[in-house]
Design a protein that fits this description.
This protein is of the alpha+beta class. Helix content is about 15%, strand content about 30%.
């Protein structure tokens, strides 16, 4: 690289989200307690910690935010969402996983969630970020 050339690197944050669904077609959503989108509904998820895989982060975030404990190996990856403007805080790239859990799985709001609730996939509230796009992806709908 010469002195006249400059190189710009974008800060990218790495996250993992979970689509937890019941066999009857309900999805687990959290009501966010923090900006951005405080008070809006979203998929459980969050930052991947140093030294952690996205799959392990997804299982950890699901447990922290909803009280639902699953084995990381039971999470199936369904895609990566990386549109540059998907998060108003900056560039976020998320790996999304799906897991099917029994309909009677107990849930408890924790960590970043005000509330946690099962929603019918065909009657969702407005969702934060690009989570509506995630839930409408063919791999999610066919789970």
């Amino acid at each position: 690289m010469t002195d006249s050339e400059t190189e710009t690197f974008e800060t990218i944050r790495y996250t993992a989200d979970v689509v937890a669904v019941t066999p009857s077609g309900e999805v687990l959503l959290i009501e966010r307690d923090w900006p951005p989108y405080a008070g809006s509904w979203a998929l459980p998820g969050g930052h991947v910690d140093p030294g952690e895989t996205s799959r392990a982060a997804a299982a950890r975030e699901l447990a922290e935010e909803t009280g639902v404990h699953v084995r990381a190996e039971d999470l199936r990856p369904i895609g990566v969402w990386d549109t540059p403007d998907r998060d108003p805080r900056g560039r976020y790239v998320t790996v999304v996983y799906v897991v099917v859990v029994p309909a009677d799985t107990p849930i408890t709001a924790g960590d970043d969630a005000r509330t946690v609730r099962w929603w019918p996939l065909d009657d969702l509230p407005p969702l934060a970020f690009d989570h509506a796009d995630i839930l409408s992806a063919p791999t999610t709908a066919t789970t």
